[in-house]
Design goal:
TIM Barrel, alpha/beta, about 350 residues, about 40% helix, eight-stranded parallel β-barrel, 11 helices, two-stranded antiparallel ribbon
Amino acid sequence: MKINDTDPLPVYKAAAQRYDRMKYRRCGNSGILLPMLSLGLWHNFGHTDDFTKARKIVRTAFDYGITHFDLANNYGPPYGAAEENFGRILNKDLMPYRDELFISSKAGYDMWPGPYGNFGSKKYLMASLDQSLKRMGLDYVDVFYSHRPDPETPLEETMGALHQMVQQGKALYVGISSYGPEETERAYDILKAMGTPLLIHQPKYNMFERGPEEGLLDVLGDKKVGSIVFSPLAQGLLTNKYLKGLPEDSRAVKDARYLTTSHITLDIIEKTAKLNRVAEKRGQTLAQMAIAWLLKDERVTSVLVGVSKKEQLLDNIKALDNIVFTKDELQTIDNILNG
């Protein structure tokens, strides 16, 4: 990460009106309120990125009432870099506000070599949390997730590790990510039996990927578990970025790990163009409408966004100005998506 020898930013003091700028929702059946928009540090916070720009994004987020910052052990690049850099931002800017922040991390994907650096064993999860706390300079995280289900490890072992983290005071709450409906219900029951509530689920959900509608949201609603959805803009497909081709600075061109140019088909471009016209009639950008469309369902506690500049974040926040859709608008959107 590019670092200046002298601090290029003035001493940070959070905006006094920050909590007037954000809307919050209760996270399931808990005492936690989450901002409807949360900041994910998946991209743009690694050692190859600009540290000053990263600080500006985090400062802007908190100034607009975004209290929730979401990380994972292997976010970077390289692995661990996002947590290290977030720890430096905390130290420079946000540590006086630690008790106003809701910080999460996760483990479940590959992190270090060998059989104990991946998936859902107790050994991996416990070691990973200790490493994450060191990288961020924290005594505890507010929530720790099992990042994905492990088909080879008993669910009782994985949930038992999450329970032990809470017992040790290293995590206040626990969550799961990318678990299916049946696995989620089992995880909920196992944790409940141990006395640790399942606070939150983090699924992938957007207009193009609607898997959570196939049972997961029903389970979360029934069990009163919160949800925070990731990839709300489908890696940039649900923005104006690709309406006129492939910009050189787009993720599909610069970083093909998660979105390749082959994903941007003529059918996708036609659908996004039609969706964009609906958004314009609503007085929104396509990205704003895509975020609002997710929040129309109150089972969605928060939408997790990732940005490369503070201006994108400010644009996303404006989505909260209008999260109400008419029946005609919803029908039109469904007709476009299913067309």
